[in-house]
Design a protein that fits this description.
Length: 259
């Protein structure tokens, strides 16, 4: 997938309606779960994460980051600011800190307000979410990824890839009050787009994760049939067929996986 294909969003007006009217009908327990989750994200912000990240840097890396920060502070135009922010985002990503990289990608998106810039910000936070283990920082990354994807789809609500990837954020960080949310979103997308290989690939991946190998094979076979360039589908099919004891098919897809 391209970086753009990692973006997702819900139309802003619908989101506001859900927030306004949905909360009124939720049971107190659900409200408590949502409040706890919200506070978790709020208690960790960039003013906490950035100093901690800088404290962990080697002296030469810290010097480069601080030089870029000083350069950014001197800029007076949005174009110049974006140029320096891209360098900061790239530097932090190369330092294996996708959360801080995502912070700067988000600043770029706030200046440009384009579908692609919000998509890249969402992608970066989503990658951070996959790599993190600390639940507080994961919640921070998930909330930022969700917001970025929502902004991307508000600009282009017809882009299916955004909706797929919003669902993936929810599968990677399931809401406590609705742990099936991401899976249900993907199923709904599959119902309305039954021959979309990207959706089938993600559903197949989720089936593999829960050891539903026969269901995974069904979805992945269809995805690979629709798009033979999906090498990832071939690799997962090799693993799924091995788990089902079908060595012949496992070997066949393993060869495709290595191509």
């Amino acid at each position: 997938m391209t970086k753009l294909q990692y973006a997702v969003i819900t139309v802003a007006v619908l989101l506001l309606l859900v927030l306004r009217f949905g909360c009124e009908t939720k049971a107190p327990k659900m409200k408590g779960l949502e409040k706890s989750r919200s506070l978790l994200a709020q208690n960790t912000d960039i003013n906490v994460l950035l100093p901690a990240a800088k404290d962990s840097l080697a002296a030469n890396d810290l010097a480069l980051v601080e030089a870029l920060e000083e350069e950014f502070a001197r800029q007076t135009t949005d174009t110049a600011k974006v140029t320096v922010l891209k360098r900061l985002a790239g530097e932090w990503y190369s330092l294996n800190n996708a959360v801080i990289s995502g912070h700067y990608a988000q600043q770029i998106a706030e200046l440009l307000n384009t579908e692609e810039s919000w998509s890249i910000a969402g992608t970066t936070f989503a990658l951070a979410l996959q790599r993190l283990s600390d639940p507080v920082v994961r919640e921070f990354a998930a909330s930022r990824a969700t917001k970025a994807f929502e902004n991307a789809i508000s600009i282009n609500p017809d882009e299916l890839a955004h909706k797929i990837n919003l669902a993936l954020v929810y599968t990677d960080n399931p809401p406590q009050d609705n742990p099936m949310k991401g899976i249900l979103m993907l199923r709904e997308l599959n119902d309305s787009n039954p021959d979309n290989p990207a959706i089938l690939l993600q559903l197949g991946r989720l089936a593999m994760r829960t050891n539903q190998l026969e269901r995974a094979v069904e979805r992945l076979e269809r995805a690979f049939q629709l798009d033979p360039s999906l090498i990832e589908a071939a690799c997962m099919l090799a693993e799924a067929y091995a788990g089902l004891g079908n060595k012949e098919k496992s070997d066949s897809f393993a060869q495709k996986c290595e191509q």
